[in-house]
Amino acid sequence: MAILAKRDTQNRSRLLYCLSGFLIFIASFFIATSAQASTEANVVYTNDGFTAQVQVTSLIELEVSVKFENAVGVAAENFELDFQIVSPLNTNLLNRLPGTLVSLPADFPVLISIKPIADRGFSFEGVAEIEIYTKNLHYVAGSPLRLFHSSDGGEFKDITVTTGAGSYRARGQMGTFSDFLIAADLRTPVSVVAGKVTAFSDYLQAQSSVIESPTYNLLSAALSILQQQVSAGSYGSAQNTVNEIITILETADGAVMPSIWRSSKDLQNVSGTLLAQARTIRYSLRIL
Question: Is 278 exposed, middle or buried (0-12, 13-18, 19+ CB in 10 A)?
Fold first, then answer.
């Protein structure tokens, strides 16, 4: 009975947190909208990425940096960048979040869209890395803020690989583009890890036909061990297994599995996607 009472109290506390956060979010949105001016962005491109200094409104600013391991066509004319305040009533976006326990922070309800133009010939190999920095949020130990990514209007997924102070900085990796946001994730850390492992498993199986058999068998065997360790709560051992998976993926070249993403979206960047998924699993295991 004591355990049930404790869980009931925790559930009510979580519900109250979500409700209060939603009310604050609505108030913040109207404040941000009333202060909104034309978005100003200063973007600097290099051969391996770009950095954008963005003033979304008079109250909200951010810096976004994107880096590529190996890319072709990194230039201003090949990208469409968009930064916008998101309404708490925008059900089209909210329905893309992974459940009601994930919500946009009241002080930073910003959707970031990075879309390489389809017919301009941009491509990259392996993982792309994005870092978002803003003074509108503040890092504290145990913060639920995470970096989420959505491709082609799909569900947003946690891609966080590091978070840190200054005032808040989050870094993630991906094998595709296009939408990004920072959200507060109140799901239990254990459920987040389990969900990420399941997503890795599903994607690995879906791409089995394009991965050379010896490498696929190594990944599949390591994944089976990882699933058992996560199920048993052996998270320290699970970290070691994830590191083994990452090493396998890092040493696999384009002959072993597809590793290139193009703006025409005619290729599956299997290597980059799996590597990004494995690294965000490692992040979530580390903070358990």
Answer: buried
First to last CA, the chain: 27
CB 269 within 8 A of CB 261: yes
* pLDDT, tens digit, 9 for 90 and up, residues 208-233: 999 999 999 999 999 999 999 999 99
C-beta separation of 176 from 261 below 8 A: yes
Give the containing element (helix H, strand E) for 176.
Answer: none
Amino acid at 270: V
pLDDT band at 30 (very low <50, low <70, confident <90, very high): low
Q: Give the type of residue at 59.
A: L
Helix axes 213-232, 189-206, angle to 10 degrees: 160
Q: Is the pTM of this model over 0.85?
A: yes
Share of the chain above pLDDT 70, in %: 87
- Cα 65 to Cα 134: distance, rounded to the nearest angstrom: 12
Of 243, 238, 254, the closest CA to residue 279 belongs to 243
Residue 205 φ/ψ region, left for φ over 0, alpha for ψ in the -120 to 50 degree band, beta for the rest: alpha
Q: What are the angstrom distances between the C-alpha of 180 and each of 65, 84, 104, 239, 244?
A: 12, 11, 12, 26, 28
The residues near 20 (Cβ < 8 Å, ≥ 6 apart) are none
